[in-house]
């Protein structure tokens, strides 16, 4: 095989790996969004009175050593995206709850399908 053909083949393989990585990351992010919403619904954190802390919901960031040893956890980033979109509301004392009304009206609803 000629060096030119080897170089072209290497670039094609690299490009395919890059595309697969992008799609895998997007899939994991979408899954994390769905999982955060599911956790909040299951635990009942759906209004101001039933709001819970991140620790109570199991959504608190993991310790550094646990994070570097395992797979990337996309739930903290998903939770931040939902907070920015105001789907997750924060109470004055730091507890959080899911706003179903905001979830229905947000662009993230499309992303979660």
Averaged pLDDT: 88
Number of contiguous helices = 6
- Largest sheet properties: 2 strands, antiparallel
Which radius of gyration do the C-alpha atoms yield? Answer: 19 Å
Strand content: 5-15%
Total tally of structural domains: 1
Any low-confidence stretches, pLDDT <50, length ≥5? none
What is the global morphology?
A: elongated
The run of helices and strands is HHHHEEHH
**Structural class designation:** mainly alpha
For the secondary structure, the number of strands is 2
- Give me the side-by-side strand order of the main sheet: 1-2
Distance between the termini: 45 Å
Fraction of helical residues: 55-70%
Quick recap:
Helices cover 62% and strands 5% of the residues. By secondary structure, the chain is mainly alpha-helical.
Description:
62% of the residues lie in helices and 5% in strands. With 113 residues, it is mainly alpha-helical. It has one domain. The mean pLDDT is 88.
List the helices and strands and how they pair.
Layout lengths: L2 H41 L10 H4 L6 H6 L5 H10 L3 E3 L5 E3 L1 H5 L3 H4 L2
Antiparallel strand pairs: 1-2
Helix pairs in contact: 1-4
List the defining traits of the structure above.
single chain, 113 residues, mainly alpha, two-stranded antiparallel sheet, 2 strands, 62% helix, elongated
């Amino acid at each position: 095989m000629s060096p030119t053909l080897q170089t072209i083949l290497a670039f094609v393989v690299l490009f395919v790996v890059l595309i697969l990585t992008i799609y895998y990351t997007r899939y994991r992010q979408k899954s994390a969004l769905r999982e955060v919403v599911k956790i909040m619904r299951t635990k009942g954190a759906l209004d101001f009175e039933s709001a819970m802390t991140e620790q109570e919901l199991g959504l608190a960031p993991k310790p550094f050593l646990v994070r570097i040893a395992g797979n990337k956890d996309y739930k903290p980033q998903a939770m931040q995206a939902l907070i920015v979109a105001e789907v997750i509301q924060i109470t004055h004392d730091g507890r959080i709850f899911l706003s179903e009304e905001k979830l229905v009206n947000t662009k993230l609803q499309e992303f979660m399908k």
